[in-house]
Amino acid sequence: MCNTCGCNITPGNREFAYKPVNGKTAVSVLENLLARNDDQAEHNRQHFDKHRLLTVNLMSSPGAGKTALLEATIDALRDKYRIGVIEGDLETENDAVRIRARGVPAYQITTGSACHLDAHMVHDALHKFPLEGLDILFIENVGNLVCPASFDLGQHKNVTLLSVTEGDDKPAKYPVMFRAADIVLLTKSDLLPVLDDFDPERAELSLRNLGSRAPVIRLSARKSLNLGDWLDWLIGELVQKRGKLASDVLVQPVAEPQSISSNTGMQG
Amino acid sequence: MHEFSVCQALIAQVEQIAISHGALKVQSVKLRIGPLSGMELPLLEHAYPFASAGTLAEGSILEIERAPLKVKCEACGLDSKVKPNLLTCRMCGSCKTRVVSGEELMLMSVELITT
């Protein structure tokens, strides 16, 4: 039974559920328009949790440096963490090829003309992309500061990139996107000295004006500037996530030892 | 840009409700949408006839109620009405605010023709 499709209405309570008036029936629904996507996203999240993964959704305008950030992150963490990447683009396999060249599994979703990834596309990708043994899964969303913000994919954290070659008022122009960010990265920071019209403090103020308390980090993936703060944040989130999953397992009743050992990934 | 996909999801939801109630047709659909939902209302209204064509909702009326944008300040505790890109407290200026209304993207009710 649910409150979605009307199956909660039985012959016994039908007359209380709604009353036909002149052949018309008003049905009160009160449900999010993206309920189906949100249900699927929740399913994806459970799947990620089962694999003890941290799943991070990367969003930005096209060309802000999402793939370059991933390349630098993979290079920095490859010895300690196993990373997987799901790439979203309208066309081409180019980004997945760049990631695979770094020795990391990547799956490319081509959306055709769709301007965002949704939870169903990610779910389909998960059927073809094994998560076993991964620590961090990145989902690189379609480059777009509008639509991706509206669709939950099942990720644990949202990372929004703002490159310093863009305007520092982007958060004010795209409030829905920047409000969704758990962390904002000001990328291509090596170019700041030659870009006198981008003021990182103005960018941060514009973010604070949205009531956001997300940390802001300036970095350059290409020049390896200040990557440490970003990596610390990422690993901190992974540790926190695993700690939470472990404590969730501890509070579960010990009725099914089998399911607990599979949840924690422990053998036997 | 994504209004058409949202509209398709809406129509699927509405059709499911209509079928489960044995309705012949959908008369009207009522939504409540806030300025921070990421939805452009004119685009959604435009997409509606296309997304509903050939379904039980074809020809139905789409009514959209606009939810006001309000934040509650965690510093001074007051509610204020704000703009989408300036969500700081109108009273004390603090950025420690929480949106209490304005993110809605809700299907409120559906009116069905049942006989």
UniProtKB/TrEMBL annotation, chain A:
Gene3D superfamilies: P-loop containing nucleotide triphosphate hydrolases (3.40.50.300). One of its GO terms (molecular function) is nickel cation binding. Residues 56-216 form the CobW/HypB/UreG nucleotide-binding domain. Keywords: GTP-binding, Hydrolase, Metal-binding, Nickel, Nucleotide-binding, Zinc. InterPro entries: CobW/HypB/UreG_nucleotide-bd (IPR003495), Hyd_mat_HypB (IPR004392), P-loop_NTPase (IPR027417). GO terms for biological process: protein maturation. NCBIfam families: hypB (TIGR00073). Belongs to the SIMIBI class G3E GTPase family. HypB/HupM subfamily. This is Hydrogenase maturation factor HypB.
UniProtKB/TrEMBL annotation, chain B:
Keywords: Metal-binding, Nickel, Zinc. Coiled coil: none annotated. GO terms for molecular function: nickel cation binding; zinc ion binding. It comes from the Bacteria. Zn(2+) binds at C73, C76, C89, C92. GO terms for biological process: protein maturation. Signal peptide: none annotated. Gene3D superfamilies: 3.30.2320.80. Ni(2+) binds at H2. Pfam families: HypA. Involved in the maturation of [NiFe] hydrogenases. Required for nickel insertion into the metal center of the hydrogenase. Belongs to the HypA/HybF family. This is Hydrogenase maturation factor HypA. The lineage of its organism: Bacteria, Pseudomonadati, Pseudomonadota, Betaproteobacteria, Nitrosomonadales.
